[in-house]
């Protein structure tokens, strides 16, 4: 597959792009919103396209043209206000889902947040973030796309272990970003993850085995 990574400048996005660049079965296109970001990736030999999640659906669809799958791992980040959370994590995701349908791309992987599907377990200090993730996931689930929703636990920058736990209802846990990127790559053509949503934390199963159990 040719994979469009939305959120290429984020920490998971950067790791995923390197994995896809080294992968023999898939190719990658990085979607970025700044020319300097595009220049940095092109110096690494990564195909890039300029598009903004606060732009139009048509511009995102054009950016995705010719791709076979989209991975949405974008986020407004913890230093922005609730307005950007609404515009990027929710509306940006919604636009990207619409763009995938418009561009005829069927495969879509969403990086969400642990327990985004269960309001009772949302953390009080980031309720707008959880609400954005919750409804973005619901939009995807109601689409015609062959989706996978990965809800990682607390994200860590330490080296990955290659072992995870994946299930529909894990209430708490953490996971290295490196392992999330590997799980996204493994999920791309793992049919057992199609039309599935699950939490993902560090565990005892190899990533490929864990994805077969969800």
TrEMBL record:
Matching Gene3D superfamilies: NAD(P)-binding Rossmann-like Domain (3.40.50.720)
Superkingdom in the source lineage: Bacteria
Record domain NAD(P)-binding: where: 7-190
InterPro entries attached to this UniProt entry: NAD(P)-bd_dom (IPR016040), NAD(P)-bd_dom_sf (IPR036291)
SUPFAM superfamilies, sorted: NAD(P)-binding Rossmann-fold domains (SSF51735)
Coiled-coil region(s): none
A Pfam family: NAD_binding_10
Designated name of the protein: Sugar epimerase
Source species: Paenibacillus terrae
